[in-house]
Amino acid sequence: MKKKNLIILLCAIVLLFIAGNINAQIPGILNFQAKITDNTGTPLNGVHSFNFAIVNQSGTTLWSANSIQINVDEGLYSVKLGDPSQGMTPIPSSVFDDNDKTFLRIWVAGEQLTDQPILPVGYAHKSEYSDQSENSEKLNNLNPDDYLGIESINTQPGDGNRNITIQGDTGINVSTSNNTITISGNGGSGIQTINGGDGIQVTDPNGPTTTISATLGTSISNSELDNNAVNSSKISDGTISNSDLGSDCVTSNKIQNLTITGSDIANNTIGSEKLNFTVGTGTVTQVNTGTGLTGGPIYTTGTISIANSGVGSTQLANNAVNSAKIQDGTVTGTDIQNGTIGTVDLNFTPLTNPYTGNLSISGSLGVGSTINCSSNITSTNSIVASNDIGSGDDITAGDDITAGDDIFAGDNITAVDNVYGCDGKATIGRSTSNNGGVWLDGSSGNDLAYLTAISDNANNGGLWLMESGSYRVYLYSESSGGAGRLSLTDGSGNVTVQLRGSDGYIIGTVKSFCMDHPYRSDKNIVYACIEGPEAAAYTRGTVELKNGEAWVSFEEHFSIVINPETMTVQLTPLSAESEGLAVIEKSSDGFRVKELRGGKGNYKFDYFVQSVRKGYEDYEVIRDKEITEEPTLETQ
Description:
Elements: E1 4-15, E2 30-38, E3 46-56, E4 61-72, E5 76-81, H1 94-97, E6 102-108, E7 111-112, E8 116-117, H2 128-131, H3 133-140, E9 152-155, E10 164-167, E11 172-177, E12 180-185, E13 200-203, E14 211-214, E15 293-294, E16 305-306, E17 359-361, E18 365-367, E19 371-373, E20 377-379, E21 383-385, E22 389-391, E23 395-397, E24 401-403, E25 407-409, E26 413-415, E27 419-421, E28 426-430, E29 436-441, E30 447-454, E31 457-467, E32 470-477, E33 484-489, E34 495-500, E35 506-508, E36 512-516, E37 524-528, E38 536-544, E39 549-553, H4 556-561, E40 568-573, E41 581-586, E42 590-595, E43 604-612
Parallel strand pairs: 17-20, 18-21, 19-22, 20-23, 21-24, 22-25, 23-26, 24-27
Antiparallel strand pairs: 1-2, 2-5, 3-4, 3-6, 6-7, 6-8, 9-10, 11-12, 13-14, 15-16, 27-28, 28-29, 29-30, 30-31, 31-32, 32-33, 33-34, 34-35, 36-37, 38-43, 39-42, 40-43, 41-42
């Protein structure tokens, strides 16, 4: 037969007690449950013959029962080992008394299984105390009236420590050892009285529940208080008056700075003897003048005046010094702060701002701030302003136009040479080949952007964007053919993406699509396109085989796009009973499939079709490197 495997479900073997009295011999019955399967893991069923034995560590049989018929249900069975009603002898207590370890050995239909240890205590023993006659006699003769008791718990007045003394009744002894109090003896009638001493209040002294508490008033003296037992948090505001304070108990070193203000000091409570000065008597005999004053020392009468340089600017009120108080010639250019004298202080009439009419200058026009004119601004040479240059019409210069900030005009801005704005960081002017251009520089002087002609073909223009002197974006018309091109570079200046108008190519190191992650707001999903050495198109789908054959039709757009002579087809049957599939016919309209070996199957299959696009059969994989070459620009 197949080998059995024993799976123990419950090995907490329970001893059932059957006894007539406390000293009777107890027959042993062990309740045992388990699960049994064959070597394939299949549970047994039906009635099977079992043999049981309890053996010691050496394998010696201590108890046994043979040919016990047990019904097994889905591998589960239970048995009361030692139960006479099942034809077994009880298990003697010596099995467990005389052996440190015991094991349950089982045979099923004569085949021995693995021994199982009996770990819990197998037999319950009588109490050693109850088994001794002298102890048993003491228990049987115990008199409830002989309970021990405490007569009183008294506080002892006048002992200084307010200790509680436990006083025994006649025949009761009280002793202590470390943290243990032992009361011994016989007789007595429990706690009779608890007496409260001085300052101790006892509630319900005769019990059964008694409360002891300290009373207020004079019950606690200074000697009974620990140092710092009473602190500020225990004293209510205003409860300590001056009469409660001893002499000199509040001194200066106990007063925090600024904690006593004038409102806290009663009138006339601080006399001159409490202040750190001596009040003098008599008349002033001398006054000495300090820095910035003249005339001293003065003993009786005299004059005090301000010395030269005795008054600084911080000591003068606004408008304290006016023109009437300034001597002619005493104020020079070095004494006047920049911008403090306006045109109103000068003896001429300035131009209006904005100037009405044309502003025409023979030579250069330069101002320290803004040039603003309602009509034309014309200069035979340069026009320069440290701020804005603004005109309601044209701005024309025979040389450069330069502004520290903005340049704006209602019509044209014309310069024979260059137009500079923003401190020279923006330039409109001519390149080295006299082509027009716009150049933008950064605050550190680095070139940032150019809009100008291509140096090797002055008929084509372009836009270049730069970062730290390196090209990052090219947008220009190609020097041959005039087609447009956009190129982007990586951080090292290498072209990684290119859009070409000449042949429609989009070239990049990886071509991807990107979408938001539907479950994580901080993530995207980015796929890369499939790439290969051809311009290919594909279609795919699922079709059902009927009686071993199927025709798959292409969509109209796929038939239009592909060259059927380059077509390849992949098939995947969706049935484990398939004999295999073959493509026996294909065209631009579709393809035909049959099952191998004359099969007549009716099931679905997947297909995947790839083909080169019409017109791209001669796609070149290896070509000249010109796709990444970029032209240079015209400079100023």
